[in-house]
Design brief:
By secondary structure, the protein is an alpha+beta fold. It is built from three helices and three strands, in the order H-E-E-H-H-E. It starts with a helix and ends with a strand.
Length: 80
C-alpha cells in the first residue's frame, strides 16, 4: 500500500471516529482496486450517512479530492 493510500484510509478513519458515538467500533479497510469500506456500529450508520446523505457525500468529496492528488480513484462503501 502506498503512502498516499494509507493517508486516505487514516483520514476517513479519523473523521468517522469523530462523527460516531462508538469510535472503538469504527473499522476502515482499503482494497487494491480503490474501494474503501467503512464499518461502524449499527446505531451509528445514520450519523455517517447524515440527513439526505450529506455526510457520506462530504466524505466522498474528500476522497475525490485526495484521488485527484494521488491520481487514483476511490470508492467509499459504508457497512453496518
Amino acid at each position: 500500500m502506498s503512502e498516499a493510500a494509507a493517508d486516505v484510509r487514516v483520514l476517513i478513519e479519523k473523521i468517522a471516529k469523530w462523527m460516531v458515538d462508538a469510535p472503538d467500533e469504527v473499522f476502515v479497510e482499503q482494497f487494491d482496486d480503490g474501494v474503501i469500506e467503512l464499518e461502524v456500529a449499527e446505531g451509528d450508520v445514520g450519523k455517517i450517512i447524515g440527513r439526505q446523505g450529506r455526510n457520506v457525500r462530504a466524505l466522498r468529496a474528500l476522497l475525490n479530492a485526495a484521488a485527484a492528488r494521488a491520481r487514483k480513484r476511490y470508492t467509499l462503501e459504508v457497512i453496518d
